[in-house]
Amino acid sequence: MAPLSLKIIQDEGAVTRTLLFDTSMRVDKALDIVKEKLVGADDAKDYGLFLTSADDDRSGVWLESHRNLEYYMLRDGDCLFYLNRARNLRVRMLDGSVKTLLVDESKNIGDLMLHICSKIGITNHDEYGLCHEETPETEDQGKDRPTTGTLTGKRKAPQREKDHRMEQLSKKLKTDDNVAWLDQHKTLREMGIEPNETLLLKRKLFYSDRNIDSRDPVQLNLLYVQTRNAILEGRHPVTEDRAMEFAAIQCQIHFGDFHEEKHKPGLIENLNEYLPVQYSGVWNAEKKILKLFKNHHGLSPLDAKYLYIKTARDLPTYGVTFFLVKEQQKNKKKLVPRLLGINSQSILRLDEGTKEILQVWPLTHIKSYHAGKNETFMLNFGDYSDKEYCVKTNEAYRIRDILESYIDLIRKRMAAPMDSRYAESAAIGEDNVQFSKLVNQI
């Protein structure tokens, strides 16, 4: 057993002490020695050892208690931070409410989601994710529109050559290219999340959402807000008639039952909060909305929210995560923009202008997929297609992460005991057995 001299840093650098350990010693035993030797260690707090990265003291890795010190390839003179694992985390929902939760900073984001969601009242934690908050980048998104919770990473991404035309098109189409979900396999400190930072919680995967109704008011409200925002932002293209229908349901939610003497033109102060921007200037828009508003008399706010979501589920783009990619035209070398969509059942190829679905590949047809380092993403459908589908994209790893998240979720649901709550949404069908074998090989 070789001796190992390590610098233990307490109180973020206020105290530093050099201690000797054996390289074969388990981390939990090393932690006991640190607690014994350090002056002023608070036994009431749950401490851990944190190994920082070479570039940034805020990032690094927590030492796991069951591993030996040699697992982390520590050298004489290396520094370990002695830190309290408990910290407060501010989480904001899309409805504007903010929760401050006490969390274990040494757990990865995936494990924290179970704790966070259970405190909020969400059962299916594996369909939600955390992301950085960010204010809208452009003024044309509308200053008076409701907060939509656009999510993009605040941390600097690796430098890469930018395609400005594709960037502008991505913003216009409201794709998910810039949605930087926190890595489920990393901790808050590894992700560089500051103690005073507020993270945004929203649904990442649409799998069991079809089973949400008024019996689950917490998830129903969050799903309503996220769906409404997506429609108002233009993520889901809708006709004028459908837009008016959604606005009328929204009136029922906000104003209650329609009354002729009270609900007259002028009731809606800002149509941008009820209609996508292309319809907010339509002639007599408010009169059309009020006429439809009458049809929802008697619906409670919860039932109206459920109706809003139920109506949105009929949209072909509902539940789809969009990425802007480039694909090669047939018999031509030129690459053209295209939308790649992923939902709980399929891979979609869509028109980049209208979001019209051009091609559908069921997830059960996927033989393999690959996110290439040369900014490509490839899908192989085996016997279901005579060639691979390959696109050029800067977001290959994000596409892979969403696809893998759906595959992992489906595998978990398939392995779990049959639950009638998931019967409707588990739409993979008889190909499940083959699909299970397939994903195990990927």
The N- and C-terminal alpha carbons lie at a distance of 40 Å
CATH topology of the largest domain: Ubiquitin-like (UB roll)
Q: In the residues, how many domains can be counted?
A: 4
What is the C-alpha radius of gyration, as a whole number of Å? 25 Å
Q: Strand-and-helix sequence, N→C? A: EEHEEEEEHEHEHHHHEEEEEEEHH
Give the overall form: globular
Helical coverage, percent range: 25-40%
Quick summary of this structure?
It is built from 9 helices and 16 strands. It is α+β, with helices and mostly antiparallel strands and 442 residues long. The model is unreliable at 136-160 and 420-442 (pLDDT under 50).
Can you put this structure into words, describing what you see?
The chain is of the alpha+beta class and 442 residues long. It has four domains: 3-84, Phosphatidylinositol 3-kinase Catalytic Subunit, Chain A, domain 1 (Ubiquitin-like (UB roll)); 87-211, Ubiquitin-like (UB roll) (Roll); 238-312, Up-down Bundle (Acyl-CoA Binding Protein), CATH 1.20.80; 321-441, Pleckstrin-homology domain (PH domain)/Phosphotyrosine-binding domain (PTB) (PH-domain like). Helix content is 26%, strand content 22%. It is built from nine helices and 16 strands. The strands form four sheets. A five-stranded mixed sheet has the order 2-1-5-3-4, with helices on one face. The protein has a four-stranded mixed sheet with strand order 7-6-9-8, sandwiched between helices. The chain has a four-stranded antiparallel sheet with strand order 10-11-12-13. A hairpin with an 8-residue loop joins strand 15 (376-380) and strand 16 (389-392).
